[in-house]
From TrEMBL:
The gene is cydC. Residues 335-564 form the ABC transporter domain. SUPFAM superfamilies: ABC transporter transmembrane region, P-loop containing nucleoside triphosphate hydrolases. SMART domains: AAA. This is Thiol reductant ABC exporter subunit CydC. It is found in: Cell membrane. Keywords: ATP-binding, Coiled coil, Membrane, Nucleotide-binding, Transmembrane, Transmembrane helix. Residues 19-288 form the ABC transmembrane type-1 domain. It comes from Oceanobacillus jeddahense.
Amino acid sequence: MKDISLVLKMMLKEKKDILISVFFGFLAGITAVSLFAASGYLISQAAFAPPIYTLMILVASVKLLGITSAVSRYGERYFSHRGTFTILKNIRLKVYDQIEPLASRILQKYRSGDILARIVGDVESLQHFFLRVFYPPVVLATVFTATIFFTMYLSVGVALTIVAGMVVVLIVFPSIFYLFQKRTAVSMREKRGALSSTFTDYLYGFRELTIFQQAEGKKQQLDHDMHQYEEMKAKENRQLAIQEAVVIFFSFFIAVIVLVQAGLYVSEGNLAGTLLAMLFMIAITVFEDTPSMAVLPAHLEESKASSKRLTEVWEEEPRVEAAAHELEPDVPLHVVFKDVSIQYPNEKKPAVRLASFQIKPGKNIAIVGPSGSGKSTLMQAMLTFAPIQSGHILVNDKEISKIAQESLWRQMNVSLQHNHFFYGSIYENLRFANKEAGEEACREALEKVQLSHFSLEDQVLEKGTNLSGGEKQRLALARLFLRDASIWLLDEPTSSLDAITEQEIMGQIEKATKYQAVVTIRHRLTGLENMDQIIVMNHGEIIEQGTYMELMGKADGYFKAMKELENSQLV
Ligand SMILES: Nc1ncnc2c1ncn2[C@@H]1O[C@H](COP(=O)(O)OP(=O)(O)OP(=O)(O)O)[C@@H](O)[C@H]1O
């Protein structure tokens, strides 16, 4: 029950449509049974040449039942499908609401292909829960019960045969099929997950795979995964077809038993002969919709697994209470790190240990240190993307975890090591930072980053694959000139640029940020003389901090040694 709690909760929100569709389903089923029962009775009665009005009443009833059955079948389809699509919409919204605040953590834990398979494939497969798992047994049970009561009135023996048939079809068969299905479903899901992950790996890494001549091997693995998945799918379809055949065969078998049994009662004089055809028709019709019970176990297993796979994505994550404190938009940010340690999930040691420093409004700060020393992690923590293990990050005296993320990000201008570009024009990619930015402002921003040779209509391909590394960095920086923000966070913003372009663009940034704080992660140690503060990191710790002069004044300082080494290489 816990496994399908997600879909059950979403389903119960649509009680009205569910009740109406069950009502129409029952009406359609029971009128179909009555229609065939009345037809059987009509044929038998006609053989005895009864008064014309008897036949007229029977013919009219048959017609009326036919019309009612058709109309209620329409109502059943309409409301059950409407309910299904609303349930699916509710599930999509719920999944999005749960996953969105955890996105940065989840993407560290799951492969992107797997996440995609969950939020597309698993959500889609839950649409079958109501229509194929919940609904058929409920409607069948109600139709069976009503039919059994009616049949009991005619012949208790026949009614008991139908009861036995009902128990086998509604309980025994689904339970046996479920056991078979469980095994197939587990390997199906594993194969689907493997296929989806291999496929995304192949797609994202296509260029590298081709260059390193590994594409063929990966393609073979993809073919292999695809082949295995198709084989499993074919096996599952075969299994479902056999199950369906068993149920259909059994239904006819019960109808034949009813015919033989009723025939026996007639010959013994315990049943009127005119009821024979009627009982046979009832037995045939009441089992008409039972093949849906053959596929029910497969859909139940699929729904359970999908619901579980979706909920585990957010249930295993620590709960994030919606932070409610809104930062005032006009007050510049003052950020204080107090003994902050950060450890990524599944990592043995922290990426940052006991970091303490401040970012005051209007100050220029550089973070330097060897690769892997934790510089970007500090920036990720300011953006609330890195998991803080201990210590405090205060933004305008408020704990960062209590601040509504949007109000924090609104005041930040960020350029990360890898910036994302969308398929579209340069203009669209710039306006993504500020919807209000007009063409003139965008052209000026391009000029500031020395991209004035680009027109606003030029196309950017997915992930900016038609741009050079330096162009991507400059386009990412151009976005920042279009937004007002009180802190600029720049992670190696000019690492792909030549020294002259770098100097000019940094000059433009300096001009635009007279009153803003700018935190820049740097590998090159040039141009740091005017920094208000330089933070030096090594092995996840801040080992030195101060102005350029202060750090260069330390006789055996780490920064001083790094700077001297760099200078010696430049000479
Ligand atoms: N998402 C992550 N999951 C697990 N470990 C991570 C993650 N991101 C970074 N790390 C680890 O944290 C440590 C610090 O990484 P970080 O990116 O902060 O270093 P950096 O100083 O910015 O390096 P670089 O100069 O190469 O960009 C590294 O050991 C890295 O492997």
